[in-house]
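Comment thread on ticket #2218

A.B. wrote:
> Attaching the input chain for the structure job we discussed in standup.
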Amino acid sequence: MKYLILFVIQIYWKVIPASKRKKCIFKKSCSNYVFETTQKEGFISGLKAFLFRFQNCRAGCQVFKDPVNGKVQIILPSQIIVAREEMTERFIH
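C.D. wrote:
> Ran it. Output below, let me know if you need it in another format.
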């Protein structure tokens, strides 16, 4: 099953040009993240990575500046706070 996920992602990369894909809020794109997680940790971890990204890399996130430390962060729909280092540059500016 691990190789099925890896194969599907590779097909996705070949069939859908980067310019036509949805823009990810994370620095490492969702497909790259799921591919790497599946490759390193196996099918179950890859599936969990996919579900996490699918639920959180959508509308509903909010970028904010932490009033305590002044750092730019993003809060995901699941209420997880992500640091600037994990966010794509287009959300920071």
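A.B. wrote:
> Thanks. Noting for the ticket: The beta strands are 62-65, 72-75, 81-83.
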